[in-house]
Design a protein that fits this description.
alpha/beta; 4-stranded parallel beta sheet; 13% strand; globular
Amino acid sequence: MTAEGEDRARTEGLRRIAYFCSYVPEEILSVPGLYACRMRASNTTTTETADSYLGLFNCSYTRAMLEAILEHESGWMDGFVFTAGCDHLRRLYDNLVHTANPPFCRILGLPYKTHEDAREWYFEELVQLRNALEEHFDLSIGDEELRGAIEACNENRRLLASLNELRKGENPPITGEDMQRAVVASFSLPKSVVNAALADLIEEVETAAWDRKFRARVLLMGSQLDDPAYVRVIEDAGALVVADGYCFGSLQYEHAVGTDSDPLKAIAVRYLEKTPCPRMFDAYPDRYMRIVEVAREFGVQGIIIQTMKFCDTWGIEGNVFQNNLREEGFPVLRLEREYALGGVGQMKTRIQAFLEAMGC
């Protein structure tokens, strides 16, 4: 789906804009003439070049992103959009501008809270992003174009939510790995391509008969995770991932953009009022209650918290979640990892021991 969709987008002359954070509105990057692509580097096996710019105490996600960009020829992406989501992303932006100087590269100021003044600030940031896109790519991004993009993105969220709902069943017709592949495709391709494919996939799995063998139903949460192979390792060890709580997961397609008269303001409200990530201050109670709610809705027996090494936000919050979830009565396994999949044998051993301790 991914390679075929990318070829079609290029044939249609769409410019591909890479973005690095769930707080970058994909609607603004999905207007006619553009399509949004959430930046990944799953095939990057070394960060030797990037390490000479970004210190080793930067998370391996940002180092892998810089390495992937420097490895590719100019024109691989038509632009990049960041947020000041964390210090590591800010350093990635600085070094990308310094080393590659891409023709279009923007960073959005992102508030740490969601009150009225914060929404107004974020709205002004989106106005500036829209204006910069119009000028650089010679586009007209008016209300009509934004409403069309909102409709397509909301439909994508609806389809993903429908697919995700099937995981609640006693014997889900879709694995966590398959769900992750659908999400990655949704964040990587034009919505016109992926929405049709998702509708076909839902129809296919709804009518299929499955008899999966697994030892326990788990929820996987934590740092940014975009590699379905990581989920496969967990499921190969006997734990079926029926729910999640991480970037590139279900928390990113739960909330639709509203139908306010000003579509750009509606976008600003949606992104600041969606289930917040740990970089947002004073929002931990909301994050925690949503994870507990999802765990209960999907019949979860245990929770796995994966945190990327040197991730400032999840490195701290993972400990708080671990303690609170155990107090709630959930068995919890904490795993530390790098962006690139590694240590598979050790990971499987720990997961299997976790399942044994749960009595599964």
